[in-house]
Amino acid sequence: MRVAVDEYSFVYVKLALLKSLLMTPEDKQKIKTFDNLDSLGTFTKRFFPNFSPKENNIIEYERSLWNIYFDIIEKIIVASPESIQIFLKSLLIRYEIWNIKQAVYGIIEKTPLDTVLDQIYFKPGILLERDVFISNLIKAKNIKGIYTAIKHTPYEKIIKKSLQEFEKSSENFYFENELDKYNFTNMIDKIEFLPNREKKLITPYINSQIDYYNLNLIYRALYNGISVESIKPYIIFRSYLFSTSQINQLCSSRSLGEFLSYLANFLKSEKEFDFLSELLEKPDPEIWAKLSTYFLNQFLTYFKEGIISDIQISSLALIFQIILLKEMEIKDIRAQVVKLSIL
Prior knowledge:
globular
């Protein structure tokens, strides 16, 4: 136990500098007041060291921000005890999946390589020790080349199966959902590597993200007139909010209205999420898109409460605060860049 405490004390000291890069609520509000990209960029540099987009456009802004974000993640992983490094690396899987999707769609649609590379972030692959895989995948010329590139990777069976379905139907539904599900099942597997105290803190957060994944999957299916039965194989029966029977009831929804009615009733019984039941009375895609942020905000509060605990839990809670808040800051900055680009 003494060794564990010493390790986390070291982490907490290392995180102090990264914590100083977090925006205050007032800073986040200020983002919305900038009326040009130059002034927004100058402001952004205060919180994202070495922020330097090659051009003042959305692609370069995003590229610079995400690259700095991955550098921050790397610093957190390196400073963390070995006992949690495996799990922290699992949080990068969704960015590796992003890269895979961009590369595969680029190959299928014969997109120019330069355009594909603009959408690829190599740092997650480097941290996961699979950068050669992504490089080989980008170079593939056709689906046969994709099959060669994915050999001996965790994605081999998933991508091969889903691309075979794509070749039959020209539908990317299976490809998207197989990969998205793997992001969470891999995270669930990696939770088992955590010591018990860390596992107890992190598991509710992961389960809440699975809740949003499941809800979003059902919502998108019903909104687009797709049978929920067809997407049920991609539902993960693990949850922070719902019992297995409640998940099955949500999956039995025959219409969007029925699904939202079930969901609102379930949420009313969960005190901390009760406010969402009112939000769902007049749902539309724009409101639904905000649900992810609501779930994240709920667990930011949860992790902030963890900081008043002992050094182990407070260090871990601070790690997640930094990871989640920096991601949300990027989304806020991006939204303002889009707004200014339209003007």
